[in-house]
Amino acid sequence: MERALISTYDKMGLLDIVNVLIKHGVEILSTGGTARHLREAGIEITEVSDYTGFPEMLDGRVKTLHPKIHAGLLAQWDISEHASQAKDNGIRQIDMVICNLYPFEQTVAKPDVTLEDAIENIDIGGPTMIRAAAKNYKHVAVLTSPSQYQQIISELNANDGRISEDTRFELAKKAFLHTAHYDSAISTYLVNLENDDGFGDALTLHYHKAESLRYGENPHQSAAFYRTETEPQPCAAWAKQLNGPPLSYNNILDLDAALEIVKDFKTPTCAIIKHNNPCGLATAGNLQEAFTNALECDRTSAFGSIIGLNRKVTIQTANTIRDAAKSGVKIEAIIAPSYTDKAFRALSRVESRRILETGKLIPPQQKPQIRNVTGGALVQDQDIYSLEKDDIQFVTKRKPNEEEMESLVFAWKACKHVKSNCILLAQGTQTVGIGAGQMSRVDAAIIAVRKAGEKSKDAVLASDAFFPFPDGVEIAGDAGIRAIIQPGGSVNDEAVIETADAYNIAMVFTGVRHFRH
Fold first, then answer.
1. Dihedral pair phi/psi, residue 260, rounded to 5°
2. Would the CA dihedral through 71, 72, 73, 75 be positive or negative?
3. The pTM is what?
């Protein structure tokens, strides 16, 4: 290698790799702020403008857009005609480009960003250099992230200043991914500026492959796990795995469901998940009690479950989980913000138990939800609706008392995380029976009551959508349900309310549906 061209916005780790390049006799070409950064570190560089004979201009918009740069990047030096043309025009070989781009995404993420700010953070020269170097990977290595520096430093030192073609090809692939993502971020931002509904005219997705999975939902299906380039918020996809074998396709789905449920509650909360549905959910004064109460909902279904917790796990909670496991409740995985040292040691004694840590949780943030259909995609806002007291309509002769009202609000929040049709029964702030994913609402009610058994008496009921007929309320009344929360809006609301009054059930309407298909 003879020459490297360096122009970076992010200077992290840059001096480390530049010093190694210099040790191997590589000349450094640089521009603007990068050149100043290197000079201040005592590194001798050649300004691009001195090499090209053309000054930086237009407030830095034009720095590297010059034939001496791009011919040096694109020339195939093993083709005699290319080498001859380069020599005749004073063009020198450039063997490496180190470049990362203006922070466009970070800029447009700011709430007060203007269109002018966004436009000025669209990098032109950088992507052009990166693409040219990547196209000519047989002769040029291109680095687009500080995370790549250590690997290249090791290879340079091990191979007397050389980088293999295989490595250059891998770098080129990452470079084209980098510029593709950059361009899609720009186009998405600009297109969405003019969209009143918040959804752009085109949908561009960009995920990086995190790992190949052993299989998908079933062993005959191949699968892989992709995630966003950076962590958008504490989430299952970016959680740190502390213990256990690699995650499966179904593990990841269930871990996501478990965490998103507990993020919805401010008090200590435990969700126990099977097949993407909670089979138990509870809030309590502490995490230990929340786990115990959630487990009581349906111990049978909790076998082979995923546990989600929204507080640091202490040794008391860990020991309670271990006691449940010893009694025959198999726990596949646990996800929580963090663990005390004692709690982690206790839980990790089961080597096959997957333990994941997310860091401090934040309340659910609005984000688009995307689902594939054959030949297309559906996009919607996340359901983060928060029920307020003023939203509640009291429709029966008997109004719920304060204790019932607290339980109804808990049940309403919980039922939005259950597949439709959903009927959920709760005592206080713990579920006692859940009927999930039924084609008929009355069947969902029958299942919830059967699951709850004697605990149906004096429980409250939440329905994710209105009752189309009074039969679901009749099942609740016969089981001893005290209060019901539902959206209302059925043509049969009057008959449903009359049935609730006949059973002395307090019923409230929310005006909001919580379908989860």
1. -65, -30
2. positive
3. 0.81
**Residue that the structure tokens 């000349």 belong to:** 27
- 68-121 pLDDT tens trace: 787 778 877 777 777 777 787 777 888 999 988 877 777 777 778 788 888 877
Note whether 3-193 and 209-225+238-357 share their fold. no
Q: What is the pLDDT of residues 310-323, one digit of tens each?
A: 999 999 999 999 99
Identify the DSSP state of 104.
H
d(CA 251, CA 124): 42
Contact 456, 449 (CB under 8 A): yes
Can you name the CATH fold of 209-225+238-357? Cytidine Deaminase; domain 2 (3.40.140)
CATH entry, 3-193, from 3.30.160.250, 3.30.470.30, 3.40.50.1380, 3.40.50.620? 3.40.50.1380
Q: Where are the alpha helices (DSSP H) in 57-164?
A: 67-74, 80-88, 104-108, 115-120, 125-135, 149-158
> In this structure, which topology does domain 389-509 adopt according to CATH?
Cytidine Deaminase; domain 2 (3.40.140)
The secondary structure of 183-247, three-state, reads HHHHHHHHHHHCCCCCCCCCCCCCCEEEEEECCCCCCCCCEEEEECCCCCCCCHHHCEEEECCCC
Catalytic residues: 135, 275
Tokens found for residue 245: 């074998």
Residues 429/406, Cβ–Cβ less than 8 Å = yes
Is the preceding peptide bond at 421 cis, omega within 30 degrees of 0?
yes
Q: What is the pLDDT of residue 129?
A: 87
How much is the mean pLDDT over the chain?
A: 90
